[in-house]
Specification:
The complex is a heterodimer of chains A (265) and B (205). Chain A has 265 residues and is an alpha+beta fold. Chain A has nine helices and seven strands, in the order αααααααββαβββββα. In chain A, a hairpin with a 2-residue loop joins strand 5 and strand 6. The longest helix of chain A is centred in the middle third of the chain and has 27 residues, at 102-128. Chain B is mainly alpha-helical and 205 residues long. Chain B has helices at residues 20-39, 42-59, 69-83, 115-123, 127-138, 143-150, 154-172. In chain B, helix 1 packs across helix 3 (69-83), helix 1 packs across helix 5 (127-138) and helix 4 (115-123) crosses helix 7. Residues 1-16 and 175-205 of chain B have low confidence and may be disordered. Classes of the chains: A alpha+beta (265), B mainly alpha (205).
Chain lengths: 265, 205
Amino acid sequence: MNDRDLITGLDACRPASDDLRQPELRAVAESIASDAHVAEIRVRIERIDAATFRAMHNISLPVGLESRLIARLQEAASGDTVGLEATSPSAVSTPDRRNSSTSRRKWLAWSGGLATAVAAMVAAVMFFRPAPPLERHDLEWGRDWHLQIVASGDWQRIKPDELDEHALPSELRPTPQRYRDASSIVGRDAYAYDLKLPDGTRATLFVIRQATRAGLPTSAPPQPQSPTLGLNVAYWQRGDVIYVLVVERIEDYRRLVTTTPQVAA
Amino acid sequence: MADPALPPQKQPTNTQPLDIETLVAEHGPVLYRYAYRLSGLAADAEDLTQQVFLTALTKLDQLRDPAAARAWLCSVLRRTYLRGQRKPRPLSAANLDVDVDLLAIDIPEELAFDGEELQRAIDELPEEFKLVLVGYYFEDCSYKELAERLELPIGTVMSRLSRAKGYLRTQLLRLEPTGEPNKSPSDTGNGEPRRGTDRVRGEAR
């Protein structure tokens, strides 16, 4: 057995396990038993392994992780907006399909085709009908946009050299690291930016393109206009861009933006 | 929220019916840490963990064996993570040869690695190596079981695991002039971190 095969076998064994009894490791086990130097190498690998294991798991959990996870699961359960993931077949049972019949498949195919056709028609109508401009009361929905965005994730990283391409407000203190297309959630040409405070609290900035003036402040307001239901929504407009910032706490807002005396648009 | 048991050996068999809050409480921490080591970012790790539990929520009634919950959740985590990967491989697999010389040095019992350095080394691994390595330390199973879960041949898992572990060794084991590994590696004193196997070659017996 050469050194490489020996190390490969030793690396596969967990410390204090019976992995060495596996047939493919028989030669490794024999080498350990007959060669003190190999036994010594095994001890070294186990020590490195133990240190690696400790370092691997030595990660501080974000404050409030469990409560956030459960809160989002409860939202998802009540809203039924959960996307399905591929799952391991070994642990999860599959529905009994023995009673599936050809007629059921035909029905599914027919109804699927009909649904596709209806969806295409709706999409065509929506495409050709201009969306009404967003007003103040529409922006109160920022709270729900934020919850949907946080639950769905799917962020893309912002490359430093691409920052100029994003229409970020000058008032924003931190540089966002991630963004995603939020058009399907906002119903307009919109992007969402993930903002995270040092204590793990999340905030979302929505950047919405709209040529129409909505009578909003032209800079970040001194405080959010809509402090409701545990989330605070602030909005303002500069040029053809509306900014909607959703934060959990008022103090988060002050940490995220610099504010100036506002002027109505 | 309970922390995961440290020894990567046995998990108590749980035959109680599960609800999603119990799953979050029991497996949330280890899944978050697993996700963190795969993604390298706290925000991504939380999103990944969230996605895993959202999936679990929809499939919970189909979980036949509650004792398999951790393996199942880990599987969902891996798949979710892989689906979100768009980045090219950071390091060629050709650079991951097993370095036998590194194991010819004395390793103290109380060895400790820096978590950030560990993460940097993990981030440099190609995805297929990273998944095997991080899975080995988080999935609480043997290399054979890991091979089944990853749907890979046993030999492939052993080879990738050894090469990935070897790469970590080259990145994390730093030698003092006496030949002792530095327990808290930072730099060489001239501002340049010591990297690669040249740090230890010549110290081998």
